Amino acid sequence: MNDAVKLDPKWGVADRTHDPYALANFCPRPTDVLITTAAKAGTTWMQQILHQLRSGGDAELSSIFDVVPWIEFPEPERDWRERLAEFEKIPDPRVFKTHCTYEQTPGAEMARIVLTSRDPRDCCVSMYHHRMNMSAAACEKIGLAPPGTFGEFFESWMDFGSWYRNVVSWWPHRDDDNVLWLRYEDLKQDLAAAVDTLLVFLKWQLNEEQLARALEYCSFPWMKQHADKFTARLPDGSPMFKPKSFIRKGEVGDYSSLLSPQQEQAIIERARRELSRECVAFLGL
Ligand code: A3P
Questions:
Q1: Distance from the CA of 63 to the center of ligand 1, in angstroms?
Q2: Residue 158 belongs to what domain range?
Q3: pLDDT for 207
Q4: Which of 69, 129, 191, 277 is 20 to 30 A distant from 7 in Cα terms?
């Protein structure tokens, strides 16, 4: 497809992290596994979990983005055609990451969907650190200044509202046969149980040794120690984030370190306005 061809507006508008042409032209397969998260809800963790389960334990991976690509992420050096051509070469089962809504996810109705949700208060605070920990070179390259005060950041996070859009759009599909919805908080509490659930859902099998290896490589200490495998990079190969900052704290409830009671209330009240009662209860808000 030519870039001049008018796309269905459902694929959204191009920006720093969203290439609608890649989405419109992506060819999903029924064997694909798509990780569909709101930003900072444990996407990278799920990328690592699924890569480790698919491989039976791989400590040698160089970058998680090579083995579990982000479908709609525009790369300055390669256009969407080249990226999609690379995706075609990945053997089944392919695993991809996307931050898209149900409507914008190509193959949402037929690929296997693993959605990880996380308390929006923690997602908000995690995103603040994400932005603060971006290297000066990365900020300059992508033309994004670090946030000013936390208050300013908070207002922009609420205005952008992508956490709400993600959950609102996926919730009606939570019981679809091809969808598995996991909560970050449950993974934190019992990763082995969540992994069992994933293996049943995906019909993948591991022996005990492979499983033990996979669990070790998905642990917070292992990922923190090998943080260079999980940081996004600029075209010259330099990390986009300050050393070891991307795999940051990995805690439930860290929001209390930064959110005021009023900010917390604003996040929760909006969730109660925009989500169904059942969804709010499921998320524990
Ligand atoms: P914090 O900033 O709260 O520490 P995403 O990958 O969607 O951007 O999410 C990033 C969040 O997931 C960060 O949260 C990061 O520390 C956390 N994370 C990454 N790996 C993890 C792991 N193995 N265990 C727990 N949390 C992890």
A1: 16
A2: 9-283
A3: 98
A4: 69
- Is this model's pTM higher than 0.85 or not? yes
Distance of CA 28 to the CA centre of its chain: 18
pLDDT band at 2 (very low <50, low <70, confident <90, very high): low
What is the distance in A from the centroid of ligand 1 to the CA of 173?
25
The minimum-distance atom of ligand 1 relative to the CA of 223 is 23
Ligand 1 centroid vs 250 CA: distance in angstroms? 5
Q: How many domains does the chain have?
A: 1
How far, in Å, is the centroid of ligand 1 from the Cα of 82? 29
**For residue 110, is pLDDT > 80?**
yes
- Least trusted range by pLDDT, from 25-34, 56-65, 136-145: 136-145
- Please report the pLDDT score of residue 244 as a whole number: 77
Mean pLDDT within 129-141: 90
| 3-12, 55-64, 227-236, 269-278: least confidently modelled range | 3-12
39 domain residue, yes or no = yes
pLDDT at residue 4 tops 70:
no
**Please, where are the H alpha helices in the chain?**
20-25, 43-55, 64-67, 80-89, 120-132, 136-142, 150-160, 162-170, 184-189, 191-202, 208-217, 220-225, 261-274, 277-283
pLDDT, averaged across the chain: 95
- Nearest atom in ligand 1 to the alpha carbon of residue 38 is 7
209 domain residue, yes or no: yes
Tokens 């914008």, residue located: 104
Residue 205: CB partners within 8 Å, gap ≥ 6?
199
Write the CATH number for 257: 3.40.50.300
Tell me how far apart the alpha carbons of residues 92 and 267 are, in angstroms, rounded to a whole number: 39
Ligand 1 atom index nearest CA of 41: 7
The ligand 1 atom at the shortest distance from the C-alpha of residue 219 is 23
Nearest CA to ligand 1 atom 27: 250
**Residues within 6 Å of ligand 1 by CB:** 37, 39-45, 122, 126, 129, 218, 220, 223, 247-250, 254
| Residue 247, in any domain of the structure | yes
245 C-alpha to ligand 1 centroid (Å): 10
- Asked whether residue 4 is assigned to any structural domain, the reply reads no
